Batch of 2 targets.
Target 1
Amino acid sequence: MHMPAYFEYGCGVKIVAGHDALEHIPEMLARLGAKRPLIVTDPGVAGAGLVDILTAAIKDRITIGGVEDGVPPDSSIQTVVAIAEAYRRQTCDALIAIGGGSVLDTAKGVNILVSEDSDDLLAFRGSGTVKRPLRPLLAVPTTSGTGSETTLVAVIKDETRHRKMAFASPFLIPDAAVLDSRMTLNLPPVITASTAMDAMTHAIEAYTCLAKNPLSDVGALNAVKLISRHLPQVMATPEDAEGRLALALAATLAGMAFGNSMVGMVHNIGHALGGVCGVPHGSCMAMLLPYGLEYNHHKNGHLTADLLVPLAGADTYARTPPERRADTVIHMIRELNESLHQACEGRYPRFLKEVRNAGGAQAVPRDALPRVVRAALDDAAILFNPEDLDYDDYILVLEHAWDGRPLDRSLIRRGP
Amino acid sequence: MALTYREIKPGRKPFKRTYLTVMLWVMGRAVQAASRVDREVMQEVSELPDGFAFALGIVARGPHMVLAKREDGRLHYLGQQLDAAESPLRLEFKHLESGFLTFTFQEKTPVAVARDRLVVDGEAAYACAVVRILDRVQVYLLPKPLAKLAVKRYPRWPFIMKCYNRTRIYWRTLLGY
Amino acid sequence: MQLPDQLEFSCPVKLLYGRRALEHLPYEFGARNVRRPLLLSDEDAVRENRMRALTDALRASEIELGAVEPPAQGIDLDLVHELAAIYRDRDHDALLVMGGGALMDLAKLVNIVVSTGQDDPAGFGASNGIAQRLKPMALIAPAAASGGEASGHVKADRIELQSIHLMPDLAVIDERTVGAPDQKAVLNAGLTALAFGVEAMLGAKRNPMVDIYAANAVQMAMAALQSAAEMPVALTTRMLTASATVMAGCILAGKAPGKLHRLGTCLAATGRLSFSEALGVLLPAAVTLEAHKHGRVPARLLSALMGLERSSGTPVGQRSLLAATALMSLLNDLYRLTEGRLPRNLRDAGFEPDDLAAVCAAFDETAGDGDQDAAMVMLQQALDGKPNQSGC
């Protein structure tokens, strides 16, 4: 048990999970005093028929105020204001966000405007500016990855100033996260694999980085265990509803862990890689995770070693000599990436050089790495990484990750 | 039954407040000096937008240090008044006591961040640049054992460069230019 | 881990644990728009310097406190109304509780009255009758806790209520307010938290969310109980005990208590041992019984009880025996440590085989179908504290 001298832990979101969890929504809304929810989603989710499943599950017992399905991949103030307008026009009294991180962030923004009866979202930016309970908001995640249904933060783009605005308040946490296996049952293999590895990375970084605490630790270990056990099964049998639900739960657990303990350099570089080269977030996480663990090994190898229990079981942990455990964990993650690569017939990249964009061209040319580094230097996730990285360190890590070579640990610089 | 009711108004912490005020004053002037002396800090500052301002301090009405980038491309120490900054990035300790722990080197800066004692309000990219600048300034300002408590990885700098720059930063901090 | 088909979990409590935790209160209050909390504290708060620590932490902040020290003995509705009147008249906007047990029950009742405007909290019915969010409430948790403080339960006078809304928004555990080194209190609180944790990790309702609190209740309580021998009880031990009891409250949340809890209540009602002692002597039996019922003891429970390194080499088939043994050896150590004041089994507490039927009958009244047999098995096993591998 790792007890830091000081820590905070909390996750106020109610979790409702099951194969028919959506059917509980009307009674949940009723308990929250709402009768007419507005559904917020994006075109992809609506096009996949998931909104239809949701409305079919609840429409007999509650009046749906409307469906707004135009949320863009990066939520923006403009979208938030437009949806808030629709909410008022249709006299809604609650929000159901069905989709990924951007949909939920948009819904949180809308909730601020409609609850505070304002049109000026910027007035509520920053930490702790929203100071009272908002209208009921339910989150229905449609991938098992982001975990954003558990967080108290929303990031919304200010298009006129080309800036991302952060909003944080305990009142932004959704009232409930509804995890239903039907929402992820038809995810294609590559998305299933990369979103699960996104959740895996949340859990592993929460466990091995600076802000860890004993509560987020247990959640993180449980998430790693569920993913390592169920992901291979779901890849082999995509219609495995039990496995799908387990992955959804794991993503939420990982979200709870990193929402409290934050993440580290894998996210830091991953955000940059996504921003500069457009690589999907989950793929970035999967490719970079072994490198993050290798780079930080001299600071947190003993924590990486603990992950052998959820990844391989207590017997393997007991059989492996303590000094070999961390390396075994890193090796197992590489092997998992390899098996997912094969299960996806090569569409799941293992190394940066393998990533292709929609047109089939190489998405991360080697000469793009310096630009990725400059973006990574601007990303705050690094604050929670055990070891520091400067320009040269980033290049070292990225070049290894580009080639797909394990990191040469003798090249990692340490303080005197 | 009679219950005794008492009102308790918050008092102040004059000693710790004064200590932090002095530390922030020194730190603010040292950052200003470093932006004229150290190549890396100059590089960081050159990439910040003109008019950029930031404040480091304690929430609410606690002491702060406020710096802004001016036309000459350098950082200028604007004093302790929060409203002196035009569009500030704020790095604030949640409590005077949290700031005191860090500024008396009882708690490393990265540890204070990890322990949720600091709130960052503003653009994350700028916050990262400011953290790198502050890290470098602390290495100049503090003797090695203390600086090692303040940064994650103590850098290996050429001895002559460190001594030369350190002397210039001390001097400029004292004289305020 | 076997996952349930249907899962519901909620815990609105935010934990602030450790060095200078109290100093984070003003920020958390500010985020919830709280400016004037009403403090309810016990009578020892001033003597033990806890009050000074709190007021010191609030210095240099915007928070203004109103403070009352309600009498320690029994809660009645008049007292609740009197406090509610103070809350309203003095324009308070939140409740802050420094202390445990009945004081927190009192605060929960006051909160119902001031938040809903209903004068009689009993009117909300026993189970989840409170639909609305109540006023912000913060608990400054002591080591000498009952385990129910952070839960959504309140039991006082003729009132028994449960609701997720009764849980505090914040639970603060700070070195300066965790209370005086009282070994007996630490032992009682530790055993209660341990039992809550073990039960939550064994039962059919186990899920990976509850596990977060349950595994921590177990590992924190074990660490605290194993070091409770030091006199005076170390600060770390008290900190761990306080946080283990907050975990216990989070496990219980707004749900009905489990079998072990109810059987413990029936044993304690005989007056021969305390509730926490009852839970302690029942624990090894509960482990073997549940292991028999569900086939295995989770590896996480074993590692929470014994530490990862020691538990990792255990074959699946030995886990229940080892878990029960770890608990029995803990009880034996505590018996020695307290010079026999803390019972290892029911015989130590003066029970004879013939006494068990009456306890079982009392349990029948509260139990659901199929639990009565289990109760008898547990009681018989706890009588001598013998391990029972077959579970029946």
Note: Chain B has one domain: 15-175.
Target 2
Amino acid sequence: MSFINNLRDKFRRAPRPARERLGDTLFRIIAFLAAATIVLIIALLVIQLFRGAIPSIREFGAGFLSSTEWDPGNDLYGAWPFIYGTLVSSLLALLMAVPLSLGIAIFLSQFAPRWLRSPLGFIVELLAAIPSVVYGLWGIFVLAPFLGETVEPFFSGHLGSIPIFAGPVYGVGLFSAAVVLAVMILPTISAISRESMLNVPRDLKEAAQALGATPWETIRMSVLPLARPGIIGAVILGLGRALGETMAVTMVIGNRPEASASIFAPAYTIASVIANEFAEVTAGLHMAALIELALILLAITLLLNLLARLLVQQTGARAARGKDKRA
Amino acid sequence: MNNGFNRRRRNAISGLAYLLCVLATIIALIPLMLILFYVISQGAPALNLDFLTQLPKPVGETGGGMGNAIVGSLMLIGIAAVVGLPLGVLAGTYLAEFRSPRLSWTVRLLADILSGVPSIIIGVFVYTLLVLTMKHFSALAGGVALAILMLPTVARTTEEMLRMVPDTLREASLALGIPRWRTIVSIIIKTAGGGIITGIMLALARIAGETAPLLFTALSSRTWPTGLDKPVASLPVQIYTYAISPYEDWHQQAWAGSLVLVIMVLLLSVGSKLYFGRKMRSVR
């Protein structure tokens, strides 16, 4: 392609039919406008949310982030219970999903026999295709009752003296939400980590094997270190997905704006409170507070995504460099 | 040398790691099996022709269906496709074919970031942009929200597919004196067509199951869709409403609705993958 471009530059003064030039210019402009739409959407998104949040920012200032009061009746709004619920449910989900996803990624990229790799990968990807409202439905009627009757009483019975397991169990709550989230982000994390493990140049693995390393030592010493930025990127992308997940969480987290220490207590997330209350308010401080919550969530996810993309790009680039060196 | 024991220990550790990885894979498959099992076993008994074609009945009356929600969902997906597909394909074309390094890098990064924005935030955005200015909830607003969600996916897959077309094809076409835009439209995009269609189907599968961005854009309705500027029911929102209701027969309907939705989504995503797989083999 650059060859053609060079030729074009060289013969730029050569006459070309006017119609051809017009067609090219028009097409270029149309395609440019389409690409610019993406930039425009992001810009508008930030501007619109910021504008909508102004009344709330003026009224509560920085105290909005730390206040625990959420009382639409008295027009008092604080974001802390929601920020807490969002962060804790997502981090708990990561705690469960990351080891499992890495296990799957290692198995699918290194251990599994070749004939098993693509069908298994395909089945894990199916998990990603199931709509979140279906996860939520399964969460309320199957998972939450199950956890509330078996797992949660066990922990609160034996370890109830530790604050995070204390208190009554309801089934719905932070823990159930975290389990559903873990299932939902598992395909994201495992697919991207598998990709970056597959990107590790083959000769590095063969070098380790030639030195007498066992399969696991090969993975630990040559695959994992090189794939690390990609794996971290995958985890961050999974975290981003968990933070913004709405329906499944709304259906199992119990929707109570309280930041309690127990992981079995009902809680609330930013996305859930927006889903529950946004359609019912029409204007005023309540809406501005909800939009400010959306703005906070947007800021968190934008930063995380930016970080993750840069890390994933970095592994891709490094793998490409490795290949160049060999050539 | 005392290496025999050491070697055995290292092999044992390696074997343990292998077992743990197998175990992780099996544990991950359990929820998938459970979800599919429950959706089928709970949903299938409530699924019948009435469910697919009838309007919902008022609380207390048995029977009725989600016909309006199914039509509404198709309508929303249609609007999203009309708005989002041309934009996405053209943006992808720009990224692949007109390479101005800095702008392409920015657009690509922003597209990736946009695909990571939680869908509920897109809902709030479209609410402030369209619902507040038009002063009512509408199918159009819902469709636009879905279009924004599919835009980055379509753009990025189009770009990747176009990049896979060998440069020799472009050079051959240009050398024949065919203008650049004709080369792109009738040769490059046509060659990459199968891959682009796969990407489009995956994007459609994703937005078909989206609930959060519709809650306060398309809202919901208990009648048949009447127009683009009216609130419209959709399958995911209907499932959500029924699931959190206190009525037993609504729960049944929510399971049946989930079965329909899962079949729709899986047909789109599995179908596109099989189609693409065959396409790739035939290219090779």
Note: The domain at 51-283 of chain B is CATH 1.10.3720.10 (MetI-like fold).
